[in-house]
Amino acid sequence: MAEGFLSRSRIVAPNDWNRWLIPPAALSVHLAIGQAYAWSVFKSPLEGTLNLSGTQSALPFQLGIVMLGLSAAFGGTLVERNGPRWAMFVSLVCFSGGFLISALGVATGQYWLVVLGYGGVGGIGLGIGYISPVSTLIKWFPDRPGMATGIAIMGFGGGALIASPWSNQMLDSFGTDSSGIATTFAVHGVVYAIFMSLGVLLVRVPADGWRPKGWRPEQAKSGKLIATGHVSANTALRTPQFWLLWIVLCFNVTAGIGILEKAAPMIVDFFANTEAPLTVASAAGFVALLSLTNMLGRFVWSSTSDIVGRKNIYRLYLGGGALLYLGIVLSGDSSKVVFILAALVILSFYGAGFATIPAYLRDLFGTYQVGAIHGRLLTAWSTAGILGPLIVNAVADSQAAAGKSGPALYTVSLYIMIGLLVVGFAANEFVRPVNPKHHERFADSEAEGANR
Fold first, then answer.
1. What are the transmembrane regions (predicted)?
2. DSSP designation for 208
3. DSSP letters spanning 239-299
4. DSSP assignment, residue 421?
5. In 3D, which of 285, 291, 293 has the Cα closest to residue 268?
6. What is the pLDDT of residue 121?
7. What is the pLDDT of residues 299-338, one digit of tens each?
8. DSSP 85
9. How many angstroms separate the CA atoms of 343 and 299, rounded?
10. How far apart are CA 22 and CA 229, in angstroms?
11. 62: helix, coil or strand?
12. Do residues 332 and 245 lie in contact, with contact meaning Cβ atoms separated by under 8 Å?
């Protein structure tokens, strides 16, 4: 019964289905799993209750990001084969189940269960849930793929804006002892399961041959980087285009996550030696603004890419990001306005890079197995999730040990970020159309109907 309910054949939409119901279905999953960005809310309570170090309390989040990339890479083909309802259901079970396992771990004082639950099991839910709607959205919106994926992936960036105050409120109500944290985790698991079930029930795939009213396939093939054929996930790994985009995504994410992970202490340190140092409350407000631009950038810039093209928009993300980092370095602690505005725009590029990459992949490799290709590319995120914080924290620690303070704590790491963005910019310049020899040998109409 369950297998039938979750199968792709059960969710083929009738011709009059409203495609604008699909973004809300995707959002119900992405807003939930976007809670990952609010993990820091639990760090201090866990450290106090279970006697953990800062490094130990970060383990669930770090493992979750690693598992996100790995599960997306290895599960992408299954997502394509079994369809979005199956994928969303697996994400629901793993993500919500991870919270329930974590609740048991805190209640029994077994922190390894928290790491396993939130990071391991929950991380699988993150990865499968993240890619679950991508291919479907692109097929429903062939005329506006950047906008469509931007709407959904905006939800992942904005999930923390909901989760952070909600989690804080529950910890205030239930307490920050082991019982209170366990109860908070359990409530998260149940509520997210209910919320994500909306996506499971609502999602549909278009029927074979469906297309938006008034839109013709040849309209999507007007640019020189737009695919005229379709490439399988396994074949995509053998193309230079895939690895060039891997570098582009990895370095764009590394540059953004370096600020995001250490945003509050960074802005406090940067202006600590000025006449008007920032308070902890001001730093928290800065972090909230970063989360907002991270979320909005995913929709605004990815939608813009439908107009200016994917290659051009990544020129902005990478080249513009490098110039903004240079502006932060050169201004030092002389201007809070320059630091804040530059950081906000950099974070908008960070979020937009995630939202635009599925459409870039669709342009190059076609719609056949684009979800699986996207899953494999997300290993770049796993790498960046380790690389970015490592660079910023290691450099800051070494500079502090050398007796430096203020902007000097971060100057070296900012120059490293500039270098990475320049390399990413160069990689984007080398992207060319995929050689037709890599195209699958079937008609476009068959490709459009494949895996539905």
1. 20-39, 59-79, 86-105, 111-134, 146-167, 179-203, 242-260, 280-301, 313-331, 337-361, 373-396, 408-431
2. T
3. SHHHHHHHHHHHHHHHHHHHHHHTHHHHHHHHTTTSSSPPPHHHHHHHHHHHHHHHHHHHH
4. H
5. 285
6. 97
7. 999 999 989 999 999 999 999 999 999 999 999 888 889 9
8. H
9. 18
10. 26
11. helix
12. no
The rounded distance, in Å, linking the Cα atoms of 117 and 317 is 35
Alpha helices in 35-83 (DSSP H): 40-50, 54-57, 59-82
> What is the C-alpha to C-alpha distance for residues 65 and 227, in angstroms, rounded to an integer?
31
Closest residue by Cα to residue 107 from 59, 49, 38, 168: 49
- Token output for 134: 């991508």
Contact (CB, 8 A) for 40 and 140: no
Instruction: Look at residues 289, 285, 284, 278 and name the one whose alpha carbon lies nearest to residue 333.
Output: 278
Query: What is the sign of the dihedral through the CA atoms of 212, 215, 221 and 225?
Result: negative
- Residue that has been written with the tokens 């499968």 in this structure: 128
- Residue 12 forms beta bridges with which residues? 205
Averaged pLDDT for residues 402-428: 92
3-class SS of residue 12: strand
As given in the structure block, the two tokens for residue 24 are 């809300």
Superfamily of domain 2-202: MFS general substrate transporter like domains (1.20.1250.20)
Taking the alpha carbons at both ends of the chain, their separation in whole angstroms is: 20
How would you class 93 by CB atoms within 10 Å of its CB: exposed for 0-12, middle for 13-18, buried for 19 or more? middle
CATH 1.20.1250.20 in the chain, residue ranges? 2-202, 220-438
Residue 176, helix vs strand vs coil:
coil
Question: Are the beta carbons of 32 and 196 closer than 8 angstroms?
Answer: yes
Take residue 408 and report the two structure tokens written for it.
């000097």
Segment 375-413, tens digit of pLDDT: 999 899 888 877 887 888 788 888 888 888 888 888 999
User: Please, what is the angle between helix 84-108 and helix 40-50, to 10°?
Assistant: 30
Residue 206 has pLDDT above 80, yes or no: yes
Query: Nearest 5°: phi and psi at 118?
Result: -70, -45
What band does 190 get if pLDDT is binned at 50, 70 and 90?
very high
Write down the pTM of the prediction: 0.82
Residue with tokens 């020189």: 224
Answer whether residue 55 shows pLDDT above 80: no
398 touches 416 (CB < 8 A): no
